[in-house]
Q: What sequence folds into this?
């Protein structure tokens, strides 16, 4: 079994075959995807093609109380 080490110290299993993950939304700009192994961040974009995610620099987030 192959594994990967995440930034938070956890070890997770690497699958033999890649899987595709989908998000269906009417508001792509609200989504942020974070690669927990590399730390890379991608924000959803309004496109009709295959470039639905744009790599972004670390975004400063303010804690919001609901």
A:
């Amino acid at each position: 079994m192959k594994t990967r080490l995440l930034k938070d110290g956890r070890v997770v299993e690497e699958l033999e075959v890649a899987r595709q993950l989908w998000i269906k939304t009417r508001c792509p700009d609200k989504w942020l995807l974070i690669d927990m192994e590399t730390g890379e961040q991608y924000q959803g974009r309004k496109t009709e093609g295959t470039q639905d995610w744009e790599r972004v620099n670390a975004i400063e987030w303010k804690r919001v109380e609901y």
